[in-house]
Structures are given as structure tokens and as C-alpha cells.
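My current task is to audit a protein record that another person submitted. Please read both lines and tell me whether the C-alpha cells look consistent with the sequence. Do not assume that whoever made the record got everything right. I have pasted the whole thing underneath without changing anything:

===
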Amino acid sequence: MLQGVVHEYIEVNGINLHIAKKGSGIKLVILLHGWPEFWYTWRYQIPVLAEHYTVVAPDLRGFNLSDKPIGIENYEMSVVAKDIADLIKKLGFEKAYIVGHDWGGAVAWTFSVLYPELTDKLVILNSPHPRIMMQAFKNSPSQLLKSWYMFMHQLPIIPELLYTFTLPLFFKQFVKGWMYNKENFTDEDLQEFIKAYKQKGALTGSLNYYRTMLRVKHHDPIFKQKTKASTLFIWGEGDKALGKELTYDTQKYVDASLTIKYIPNCSHWTQNDCPELVNNFMLEFFE
């Protein structure tokens, strides 16, 4: 595990959130992981960012050591975003740099709309704007095909049973297997990921993020309002789950500066596959 990282539980929005924390900077960076990840996916970012900032990587609700409330409604993006809003306040900060990957990116997009006063700057890694993603489901057969697993996750029980019996193989094939720099996902990393998803309720809690997809309403704020935060969009071009074209119209939904950094030979697991580039992009953007 990472040296110097402090682990805490903080009560937010009616649940206990597990966080990994390092650094003592006057500015706060919140790192939001995706699926199938947890706080540890930021292992290459935490030490570097902590030299300049206070860095906090939570396990989102439903994941690893955080609480896992029962009911799909408890995993809607607005609910998860409120967790992060409460977390910033509990940590004693007025606002934060918000960084999100995959589902953490969806939370970050939503957070920036619901809590513009708490969003200093926004960094998104391989997570399309929710409006673009929903449009792709309707208009892009190729993306619909790539997203087959999202719809498989709508099924009750079956995905949990599938992953219960295939966790090591799943992480080897779809995380390490997709990466270009496979040495960045070690056997030790593999064991940490397996352990996180063997936590009681973690599979169902984490899959509930997908199961909220069909509950999205077009009058939700994310579909009506633009992000007002300066945004850095980092995209690994070798993403097998999400097409690069999902980035093209992002400026339509950002009412501020938008910088897009494409990384060739980089998979969906951006911050693990190409950590030095990601770290440099973020440090430059924050400064």
C-alpha cells in the first residue's frame, strides 16, 4: 500500500465514506474513481499531487470500504455528488479541484453543474459528458455495441454471480489486458482489486451505478445546464469501451475554457496506463 496515506471514515449525506488522504496543501484535490475501481486506482497520482495539494481519494458509495446502502435510487448521480459536496465541507475546504475517471467522471460532470461554487477546476478522464453518452446510445450503433456490458449490468443477480466466480480473470483480461503498459498493473495491484470487490455488498453496490442509467430524466440539471468550471479532458485513444468521437462536441456543454489532451497508445485505464502524462497534464492545468 502507499506510504504516508491516511485512511479515514467521514460521515456524509447519511453514510460513512472511506477516504485515502495525503498531503497538506492549502488547495484540495478530490479524485473520483470509476468501475471496477476504488481509491487505489489513483496510486500513481496521489504521491505526486500530494507534494502540492491536500489529496483525497474516496471509495465512492457502494465500493470497497464505504457504505453500500440498499436501493438503486441511492446511486443516482445527484446523490453521489452530494456525498462529495458534504465531503469537501467536512474536510474544511471551500472548494476543490474535482478529478473523475469513468463513472467518477460522470459524478464529476454532475457535481460541477450542481455545485459550481464548490468546483475550482474540473478534470475528466475517459468519461464522456452524460448528454453525449445518452445521444450515442440512440445514434451510434458502434458505440451501442461497445457498451453491451452496460446493458448486461441491468440484469439482477446474474452479473454479481458472473463476477464472483471470475474476479481474477476479469481484472487480468479487462484491466491489465487492455492496458498498453501492462507493467503498471502488478500482481500486488491485482490482489488489491480482488480484495476490494470481495467486500460484502461491493459487487451489487458498484453495479448499481449502471442500474441507475435508466432512471436518468431529461429535466435533470446535467441535461439543462452547462458546466461553468474550466475543464481539462484527458482521453486515452486506445479505449475499447468508449469511442474517441464521444469527445468531439464537449465544448457545447462547457461554458468555460475546455482543453482536450489525447494520449495515443493509452487504454481506458488512463491514469494507470499513462500516469506520468496524466500527472503532468493535471499539474500544469491546476497551476
User: Anything to note?
Assistant: Residues 6-286 form a domain with the Rossmann fold fold (CATH 3.40.50.1820). The chain has one domain: 6-286.
